[in-house]
Amino acid sequence: MSDNNNKNKNQNTTKTNIEKDLNKNEANLRNIFKNADDIVFRKIEGGQNQKINMLLVYVDGMTTKESISEYAVQNLMMNLNLENLEKSPDNEILNAVSKTNIAILEVKALLTLEECVDKMLSGETVLLIDTCTKGIMLSSRGWPMRGVQEPAAETLIRGARDGFNETMKVNITLIRRRIRDPRLKVKYTQVGSRSKTDMAIMYIDDLVNKTVLDTVEKRIKNIDIEAILESSYIEEMIEDDSYSLFPQIENTERPDAAASALLEGRVVIAVDNTPTVLIAPAIFVSFMQSSEDYYERWLPSCITRMIRYVALPIVMLLPALYVAVTQFHPNMLPTQLALYVAASRANVPFPPYFEALLMELVIELVREASMRITTPVGSTIGLVGGLVIGQSSVEAGLITPLAVIIVALTAIASFTIPSYNFSTTLRMIRFAFILLAAIFGLFGISIGLSVLIIHLCTLKSCGIPYMSPLSSFIENRSDLKDTIIRPRIKNMVRKPKYLQAEKEKGN
Amino acid sequence: MFNQDITPYQNISILILVSFAFQSLLMPSILSEIDGPVGWISIAAAALFLYLAMRPVNKLMEKHSEDTIISISNKLFPKFISKSIGLYYILMFLISNSILLKDFSEQIKLMMLFNTPLSTIIIAILLTAGYAAKKGMQTIANITNIAVVIALIPYLLIIVFSTYYADYTNVLPIYPADVVGVAKSIPFAMLGFFGFSILMFSNSRVAIKEKNLMINKRFIVISAILYIACYLLIVVKFGMKEAVNMVWPFISVMKFVNIPGFFFESTEIVGLCFQIVVTFTCICILSYFTNLSMQETFKTRENGYFIFIQIPILYLMAAALPGMYMMFPYIRIPIYALSALNFLIPLLVALKDKLRVKNEELRIK
User: Fold this and answer.
1) How close A309 gets to chain B, by Cα (Å)?
2) Confidence of residue B114 (pLDDT cuts 50, 70, 90)
3) What span, in angstroms and rounded, lies between the C-alpha atoms of A319 and A307?
4) Is the domain of A124 the same as that of A59?
């Protein structure tokens, strides 16, 4: 597929040259693909005047048979005309075959059997000719694929309905359609010693931060793994701190979001067999932004985004605040509310922290259960879990109605966070805050927040501080306008300063 | 971008934040020295002295742009003097940090955690601060900027709504001013500009060093405005007599803030949560610069692990020391000495550097 395929450390590097004897080559290939019944070996005799033995090899189900039979086999059998085949150098034979007899766009010479195997497994057809020490790759990729559909996890009211699918080239096309700029670069590479998964690193040449690009390329090159089954594998292996709970690489299934990231000067990584592309670098505020923010009118979008920022502390801290206030600082509450809380807690056997932990655990169980089963049943489980368990727990006197309200509000707030993995992180952190509140009250929450801030300030994404532009808000003040608020499109002329983008929009 | 340098504005945030923490703590000590509400004159005078000192100090630091005050001393003075300067900064940072730690922990215990032992609170703060200090300069600078963002709005609200029901006649009379009292309280006011000692270290870590003089001058001006605003707020809110006996007046102000529509009964607890982030950041900054002083004095490469030496020392000092408000009557002379040394050491180093250059020029001639 590409010349710059990186070779993984544990990849077999021995090379077997293609022999002049076609039978030997066939035997070698059959040996490699022993017990692989989906490999098709098709022997043909080509040429008008002389019989030239040829072998077509491909993986059944991964190729478009029609194009090979129509544009290659037919011509080779009927029209091939090679004089003095045995005396001709390989190049001439290859040229004659590929230039005059094969009406397929992408054709490439192959030097070794390993190359032939790699191409076959990628869905190409390999043509071997008797007496010729080079093979020919005939582009024939074609397998059943999902159509371009709206991504289920990133639905919008307004905006494009197309989403990435599992075929990398389709995904690249969807991005290219949005950025018709020759400066949009796509670099192919392969990762995985067994899976040999195709990947594409995309960036806009004059916008990307070269240091970030180098970092990404270097990290991908250093990946030493057997198989890549999803882009999350790459994500985990190229992020700066894989022990952190916070995601440091953004992901999306939306081509418009990927195109927007490219236009900001970020790097997009598309991985074959997954509809999720990766975006690097990612910063804290980018996880709070949704594509729709830019498609709706700016003022409502601005308010919506601010509401999301209000939801952020609710997701992380509300149950912990409930625990801290009821257990340590009831004097903070207005008198009437304090009396109500005291009265409702009178018959509850558990301390507030246990109550909060219990309810949070129930919510997580319901959430996990509804995700593991089919959609209609999943929503029923959600309803049953939410309503029945909540209602009956209150009636049984196990928890207070206030705790149910708090937990429900927290769960709803967590759905407002646009990024699923970021929202998951916040949900996990909530448990730590509940425990801290149970030990130290509001002081514990403050200490927890301080640790969180320290951790976030230490994090980097491909070398870019994770808390940019907030961590250097005076220098990068121009970037602040697209953080908590969403400015008007015409005011978003400059590229993010924290990325040190090299040219401004329009150049 | 990929190194440990900080930006000029991150530097100014560090300097202002550290100073603010000490200013709010030192307020009663200034008030106790003066007979009358003219402490703001002491603050303005202290600011003026420091502002004037900025030029020679920055000239020195510009010349030795990658060096801190300790490493410059190493170059200019005999070993004994340079080591003494290094040890002085280590001790000064340790004492200041432990005082801050102790007083703040006491406030937390008084306002939030009546039943929790003080030592538990101190350890919790220390361990968290240690985690930050070990992460390095850039993390400290990032935290400071975030802390400023977090604390800015609540602080503004507190200051604005504190002016309700305040007695503005408390700032009078200005004349006749207690001149002796003002002069005596200048060292206390000067200690409030704690960032002056910090910049001797932080300037060398700034990416764009040409901006250091401008940033340092701005720090003095902004800090002086904050200091005076804070002072006047406390005087109008509590009056002289009451304010003198307060442990941490700025935190006490929060008790009396009445924000319209704010339904929580105890505003001070909410305010204290933000103050925790600010003071905690200040403790992190001080811990980091203690580490740096240790590194420079003992000439070691890695400074992160010095925090493991600091934590037990700080804990013992914080546990052993009485609170600042209890020490006021007994620490006048140490405070005078501390202020004088903080102010004079950089100037003496600058003077020595200048003399050395002159001597070299004479020798060449």
Assistant:
1) 13
2) confident
3) 19
4) yes
- Find where tokens 């150049």 sit: A507
In a domain, A161, yes or no: yes
The arrangement of strands across the sheet holding A135-138 comes to A39-46, A52-59, A125-129, A135-138, A107-110
A114 and A217 both lie in a single domain: no
Q: What is the pLDDT at residue B325?
A: 67
Chain B, nearest residue to A498 by Cα: B1
Identify any residues that bridge with A56 across adjacent strands, giving them in sequence order: A42, A127
The residues, ordered by sequence, that sit 6+ positions from A58 with a Cβ below 8 Å of its Cβ are: A39, A40, A42, A68, A120, A123, A124, A125, A126, A140
- Let me know if residue B241 belongs to a domain: yes
Residue A118 structural domain:
22-138
Please report the pLDDT score of residue A102 as a whole number: 74
In a domain, A480, yes or no: no
In a domain, B1, yes or no: no
Q: Is the pLDDT of residue B84 over 50?
A: yes
Q: What is the pLDDT of residues B237-246, one digit of tens each?
A: 887 777 777 7
Distance from CA of B296 to the nearest CA of A (A): 24
Mark whether A131 and A191 lie in a shared domain. no
For residue A277, is it within any domain? yes
Q: Which one-letter DSSP state was computed for residue A39?
A: E
Same domain? A302 vs A215: no
Among partner residues B1, B149, B277, which is closest to A463 by beta-carbon distance?
B1
What percentage of chain B has pLDDT greater than the value 90?
28
Give this prediction's pTM: 0.85
CA dist B135 and B140 (Å) reads 8
**CA A458 – CA A466 distance, rounded (Å):** 8
Å between A36 CA and nearest CA of chain B: 50
Residue A99, exposed/middle/buried by CB under 10 A (0-12, 13-18, 19+)?
A: exposed
Token pair recorded at residue B237: 């809110």
Same domain, A371 and A453: yes
Of A282, A304, A322, which one is at a domain's C-terminal end? A282
Of B1, B128, B277, the CB nearest to A211: B1
Q: Show which of A138, A167, A188 is a domain's final residue.
A: A138
Overall average pLDDT of the B284-311 stretch: 86
Domain of residue B261 covers 8-364
State the Cα torsion A356-A362-A368-A371 to the nearest 10°: -110
CB contact under 8 A, A443 and B266: no
CB A216 within 8 A of CB A277: no
Which chain B residues are closer than 8 Å to A478 by Cβ? Answer: none
Nearest to A2 by CA among A185, A241, A265, A227: A185
Domain CATH code at residue B272: 1.20.1740.10
Q: Please state the φ and ψ torsions of residue A198, each to the nearest 5 degrees.
A: -75, 140
Taking contacts as CB-CB distances below 8 angstroms, the residues of chain A near B150 are 453
Same domain flag for A351 and A234: no
- The answer to whether residues A91 and A204 belong to one domain is no
Bond before B260 cis per omega within 30 degrees: no
Q: Are residues A192 and A131 in the same domain?
A: no
Spatial distance between the Cα atoms of A294 and A492, rounded to a whole number of angstroms: 11
- Type of residue found at A333: L
Which of helix, strand or coil describes residue B209? helix
Tens-digit pLDDT profile for residues A461-474: 998 889 888 887 77
Identify the three-state secondary structure at position A141.
strand
E-strand spans in A438-488? Answer: 460-461, 464-465
Q: How far apart are CA A424 and CA A243, in angstroms?
A: 15
Rounded to whole angstroms, the maximal C-alpha distance in chain B is: 77
User: Which residues partner with A40 through β-bridges?
Assistant: A58
pLDDT tens track for A185-239: 999 999 998 888 999 999 999 889 899 999 999 999 999 999 999 999 999 999 9
Chain A residues near residue B13 by CB distance under 8 angstroms: 474
Q: How many structural domains does chain B have?
A: 1
Number of domains in chain A: 3
* Residue A12 within a domain: no
